[in-house]
Design a protein that fits this description.
D-Maltodextrin-Binding Protein, domain 2; 5-stranded mixed sheet; SBP_3_CS; alpha/beta; 3-stranded parallel sheet; globular; 2 domains
């Protein structure tokens, strides 16, 4: 399958994910996504006794987490989640995916709605006060995508302009803190944010550069004219604050995946078809 056709299918799947979330539908087991609340930290022993691990993932952020045309969870984060379930419970089907949005990832962990988050979650000092992050599996920086006819190549060009961001993301936090002169228009869903850019409701859109590079390949009228903004940041799983038992287990798993090649295999399955040879795995995978 050609690259553009694959990306088109992924991005089309994101629209389905929005519909599933809006309707309260979802999945349990290997492909589906809603979950009931629970209280207390989920220890490794408690998860084993329950026979399922609840992991928060995105439903509309291909190629990292999305729901395909068959209603199944797919993406880089999803592959890692399946590996965790296989090692802990003996089968990749023993994971219950819970669809999350950027703004509610912390709350889902704190409330116990999920056992851990694997939703492209960037580690920040503020978030680390609310949840415990495991070791990172990916590294990114912020980027800015804009129309090719009116490229934003410098943040100074955004003064008094509207910049599109997702609520609760590092892009939201970065511009809120460092650039109050930029007007932010915020959305919950990735699909809403990118549709707003296409509709001309903002001069540009800020998000993780890894996502923007993929999106711009499928949307050639736009370009990532600012590819690396701010310091490099790390993406990692997160668990409830103080849940050392589960945190230590996840850390061991991430280390094993890096050593035995499973992390790179997940990259090759989900990200290589999108980025091709232009982006090297070591540019995105954490050591």
């Amino acid at each position: 399958m050609k690259l553009n056709a694959k990306l088109k299918a992924l991005l089309a799947s994101a629209a389905i994910a929005v519909g599933l979330t809006a309707c309260g539908g979802g999945s349990s087991g290997s492909g589906d996504a809603q979950s009931s609340q629970s209280s207390g930290a989920a220890t490794v022993a408690a998860i084993k006794e329950k026979g399922v691990i609840r992991i928060g993932v995105f439903g509309d952020k291909p190629p990292f987490g999305y729901v395909d045309a068959n209603g199944k969870n797919q993406g880089f984060d999803v592959e890692i989640a399946k590996d965790l379930a296989k090692d802990l419970l003996g089968s990749p089907d023993k994971v219950e995916f819970v669809l999350t949005e950027a703004a509610n990832r912390v709350e889902y962990v704190r409330s116990g709605k999920v056992d851990l988050i694997l939703a492209n979650f960037t580690k920040t000092p503020e978030r680390a006060e609310a949840v415990d992050f495991a070791d990172p599996y990916m590294k990114v920086a912020l980027g800015v995508v804009s129309p090719k006819g009116k490229p934003i190549t410098d943040i100074a060009q955004l003064k008094d302009q509207t910049l599109l961001v997702n609520k609760g993301t590092t892009a939201d936090a970065f511009f809120t803190k460092n650039h109050p002169e930029v007007k932010l228009l915020k959305f919950d869903q990735n699909t809403e944010t990118f549709d707003a850019l296409k509709d001309g409701r903002g001069a540009a859109l800020a998000h993780d550069n890894a996502l923007l590079w993929a999106w711009a390949k499928e949307n050639p009228d736009f370009e990532v004219a600012i590819g690396n903004l701010g310091p490099a940041e790390f993406i990692a799983p997160a668990v409830q604050k103080g849940n050392a038992d589960l945190l230590n287990w996840v850390n061991g798993e991430i280390a094993a995946m890096k050593k035995d090649g499973r992390l790179k295999a997940a990259y090759e399955k989900t990200l290589l078809p999108v980025y091709g040879e232009k982006v090297k795995p070591e540019a995105l995978l954490a050591e």
